Amino acid sequence: MAEPFSVWAPSRSRVRLAVGGARHEMARDDRGWWHTEVPGAGPGTDYAFLLDDDDKPLPDPRSLWQPNGVHEPSRRYEHRAFEWTDAAWTGRALAGRVVYELHIGTFTAAGTFDGALEKLDHLVDLGVDFVEVLPVNAFDGVAGWGYDGVLWGAAHEPYGGPDGFKRFVDACHGRGIGVILDVVYNHLGPSGAYLDRFGPYFAGKNQWGPTLNLDGPDSDEVRRYVIDNALGWLRDFHVDGLRLDAVHALVDTRATHLLEELAVEVEALSAGLGRPLSLIAESDLNDPKHVTPRAAGGYGLDAQWCDDLHHALHVALTGDTSGYYGDFEGALPKTLRSAFFHAGTWSSFRRRTHGRPVNALTTPGHRFLAYLQNHDQIGNRATGDRLTATVPWPRVLCGAAIVFCSPYTPMLFMGEEWAASTPWQFFASFPDAELAEAVRTGRRREFAEHGWGEAEVPDPMSPETVRRSTVDWTELDAPDHRSVLRTYRALIALRRGHPELADPRLDRFKVDHADGWLVLHRSGLRVAVNLGGSEVTLPLRATSVLLAAEGVSASATGLTLPSNTFAIVGVS
């Protein structure tokens, strides 16, 4: 049986397909696509393309399998061959849920999909609803964060390849956990990005690498490349949602923005599959348009990360007001009420006004993800130190109580739930020595500008950096770590058992505060947190205590909280 092959290369005068030792001429259609058929070249067949008279074989831009790395031939992959067991999975909407961010390569010592699925029972016991997986697309080297991907449809082979990722998703669904995949459409990595050799895929560069041509000549097929990739993860890998990396770096001047076009296509796929599919943006713009429904003039995405909430929490917990944190001193109450602190207001870091207000009457809080930590906020610190490296864990638990009892969608980063002592540092493993040295030098130069000595910045190319960044599951045997884990479990269970703690209505959310303490009003419940330096007694007459830190006491005269404690109580 003859198997079809095709590739888009509109500006090439000749394209050949390499299969085994043979070269097959391809025919061009009027849209710039080249086609041929090869008998017997079914699943498992390695193939590559030769452009014009160049004899260098290049992998397929739409490759689904790169068993030998991003510079080598692609391998035919058949989705229908995988035996799924998740037929009963009906998916779940994002609203009211808890998200757990993890990186496959450092979630376990094995650093694979199969290694990660062995820890799923821990996540079930914790009570999370979704895992948000850092990018698994193919990138050059073995270890990396995944944001230097160059073949977006191929699951990274060192993690276990496409079948390995499907086993992971299937196992998550079997335990009632949805899967959100981090995807990167704003740039490509520095090694193995051959797209521009096939056609006008690139339109320039940003701080991370080449950017896509989304609105110039011949950009229709480039946009289709992005959309088809997104739909492929959702449809063929049964993924439940996508986290769209740094959408503010997508340059698109068309009347219909790529994000809106993608939302329309995903909505249609969701209807066809009969299960919810979510799109979550990461954006630096503080523009509610991303999560505003299309009927109201927005892009129609389901949610977005909210760094303002992180920054306000970080400053409240650490006292750190360096860099962009300087704007967030004392900003926690306001930011909790409004999601965006910068909402058409002055940003000293940017030296301009920034953002637009969120309409509390029409925009539910669940459209914003709230977190104490994530891969960026940890990994982009010079030493990759977690919050608990400098903040006592009882104080961090106060922050966790705020996050899990807020109107927003809570997210935690792997290991946070037990105050993991392992850092999460920046690492890569580019085989090219010159590129590796450039990354190493650039990283050290970046932090030298902020006062860090060269010896203090971990070598991103060292396997030891990856080892240090791998979470240590044996810590769960230590009493303090177990205590933190118990509190995280209790907070998530309370959120699930008391719907008022997940109520997303921002117009009904009230925050009282003074002298380092806060009280979140959650219908008939109050979440009281004391981040001040001394004990406080609040005039709250508790009818019940749902959860309280050690040392908290409730009486007829009020609720007494020592420093760095919290309590969740019912009130009359």
Automatic annotation (TrEMBL):
It catalyses: hydrolysis of (1->4)-alpha-D-glucosidic linkage in 4-alpha-D-[(1->4)-alpha-D-glucanosyl]n trehalose to yield trehalose and (1->4)-alpha-D-glucan. It is found in: Cytoplasm. It comes from the Bacteria. The keyword Cytoplasm applies. Its EC number is 3.2.1.141. Pathway: Glycan biosynthesis; trehalose biosynthesis. Keywords: Carbohydrate metabolism, Cytoplasm, Glycosidase, Hydrolase. Residues 101-445 form the Glycosyl hydrolase family 13 catalytic domain. The keyword Cytoplasm applies. PANTHER family: 1,4-ALPHA-GLUCAN-BRANCHING ENZYME, MALTO-OLIGOSYLTREHALOSE TREHALOHYDROLASE. NCBIfam families: trehalose_TreZ. Belongs to the glycosyl hydrolase 13 family. This is Malto-oligosyltrehalose trehalohydrolase. It comes from Actinokineospora diospyrosa.
